[in-house]
Specification:
Layout (H helix, E strand, L loop, with lengths): L2 H7 L14 E2 L7 H11 L8 H14 L3 E5 L2 H11 L7 E4 L6 H8 L3 E4 L11 H7 L4 E7 L8 H11 L2 E5 L7 E2 L2 E2 L6 E5 L12 E5 L2 H11 L3 E2 L16 E2 L10 H11 L2 H19 L5 E3 L6 E2 L5 E5 L8 H10 L2 E2 L11 H5 L8 H7 L2 E4 L7 H17 L4
Parallel strand pairs: 1-16, 3-4, 3-5, 5-6, 6-9
Antiparallel strand pairs: 2-10, 7-8, 7-14, 9-10, 11-12, 13-15, 15-17
Helix pairs in contact: 2-9, 3-9, 4-5, 4-8, 10-14
Length: 405
Amino acid sequence: MDNRTEETAGLAIHGGRPVREKTIFYGHQYIDDADIEAVTEVLRSDFLTCGPKIEEVEKKLCDLTGAKYAVMVSNGTAALHLACMAAGISEGDEVITTPITFAASANCALYCGGRPVFADINPDTYNISPEEIEKKISSRTKAVVAVDYTGQAADLGPIRKLCGEHGLCLIEDASHSIGTKYKGRYVGSIADMTIFSFHPVKTITGGEGGAILTDNEEYYTLLKLGRTHGITRDESLMEGNSEGKWYYQQVGLGYNYRMTDIQAALISSQLDKLPRFAKRRKEIVARYDEAFGELPQVVVQKEIAESDTVRHLYILQLNLEELTVSRKEVFDALGAEGVACNVHYIPVYYFPHYQKLGYGKGLCPNAERLYERILTLPLYYAMTDEDVEDVITAVKKVVQAYRKD
């Protein structure tokens, strides 16, 4: 048995001893007694939905980010849909976004009758490239959905400038980036509309939930109408006179995208812990970067100087030229070592639905190359130092076993 065979034989996937007996997953929510008490208080109150906790958490988000208005909705996808609706996206309009994102960042254009146009990424930061956005702008372009992939702010300065020059609405999909700052300003107060998500693996969770932040009063009005069926009791928005305090009108077509007070209470409590969450996530990222920066078999995501990042995901890119196997073998081997990775994301236009709409592979070469090489490693607040070191040990064990001589 040669040295390489001995090394691969030591992998758990080949019968060796795993680094961990108990599997660690890529993400996990953190719920403490304060969160439980906040939800319990709502359950004992008079309001389970459409109550005071909605306005409470909206105010907290405005106080945090500096945005004038916040609108809480049922989830991040609903937030993206309403943002496109408020921006006036309709049949024939184009919305530029990145393919390295969850499908909702593109689907929101389809919901409104528009067409997503995919711009390639910066191969170092993995965020949408302003230069590639500019190449995709046409007479039909109406908006840009810039995704803060992994929590790092997109290059918002140049993107904002492009949107201003071409009269485009800038929608920032900040589903990953609550707590992140761009040039010293919190994400949420920079774009025309900013989207947050509160899914369980996000930095702040409500179980589910979303928010749209804006400084534009017209957008704010449309967003509030959109989340409640287009129905209002605001006399200034009604046609004709009110018939009494009970009276309401449907003044447009909206949706039931309301958030419950149960969700809002949990989000509000979680927001109180954001500084702690952010600090711990930064510590873990720094440790990973230090450990993996030494390995020729992997590549660490780079960050722009303008982004003070609270990372939602930790993406490790494999340098396949230095390995004897593909991403799949590394993925499976890490799982056997007790480190359950994920992959974020499959390029959106790879999906059968988008293929049926006429999208084909080859649109964004940088994104496609990245997809073949990336793994998402565990990153969440409750990880212990031992957990972090186990992940590092497992990665080193696997890539060294599969390294080229």
